[in-house]
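User: I'm writing a tutorial on reading structure tokens. Could you give me a worked example: one chain, its sequence, then its tokens, then a sentence or two explaining what the tokens reveal?
Assistant: Sure. Here is the example chain.
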Amino acid sequence: GSPTPWPIPDAAWPGMFSTARSPDSKACPLVAALYDDAEIQAYRRQLAQAPLATLWDKRLALAEQYARQWPQPELTADPVIPFLRSRWGRANLSDQADGLRAALDLAWAGLIAERDDWRRLALRWVLTWTRCQRWVQFGVENIPEIPFSHAQFVQSRTATIAACVFDWCGELLTPDGQRTVAEAIQRLGVRDIDTILGPKSYVWGMNQGMVFERGCFVAALTTRQWYPEGFASRIERATRMLSQCLETCILEDGSAIEGASYLQYTLGQVPELALAVTRASGQPLSALLPERLQLAGRWSWINRSQTNADETETTQLPYADCNLG
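And here are its predicted structure tokens:
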């Protein structure tokens, strides 16, 4: 017979959401893992002025599109996280695969624009993910003896996004709702990712270490209020991982040990992890990041394709790992 469908959560999420925010209060982060209230207010002022205002209007339009496209994220409920990796052939999820991006964009736009309807919708995405058994690509990853990729890419991305949504929107949850989300981020994100970040793991010698540490540390920092045990050791590990991975992947002249696409992917992990470590440790960014990181941006720009007549895109020259542009 057909498999039993995964139960769809109640879209009202009884007991999870608090009453409406006071009209005279500003929307603010719950724990300020990456940005504090003063920084958020500064962003609001900057994004309201040219030239950023034009770009910000596009982000607001995108958030509105997501809100219309997926008004009920609970319909995507699944034992594993809705996530699309087309090279593995999981194309049947179609629209649902963008739920991670939708939740993140709704949360950030909602916080800056003080749109609590968007923030609540982003939280409903995350609450739906709390029902998962694991944050993985699909069921086969739950079978240990199958020679399949068990690296925590999905867990890391999901933990990062869930943590950001929780921080930027969590003030709208009740204490029970906050505990529910914090527990899921710890159980499905932090503890799962921890298994690949041991001192003898292969990830210390390549960019994957920073990929996994980003999700693990941002999630741990965001939920520290509920799970404070051992956090000091996490700061030490994240600081070492950030420095060691960058010095391994980026050479002294700013070039990389792999192609330009991999370099850009590696650099894309830096902002959230570096900001989180700075926030937790009190160290300035200049003390955390190696000098060669400044040169990496110039090297990546050299490899930018010049084939676009209007110069509106920043695709890479079609060589090495840049064959897709």
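What the tokens reveal: The mean pLDDT is 85. DSSP finds twelve helices and no strands in the chain.
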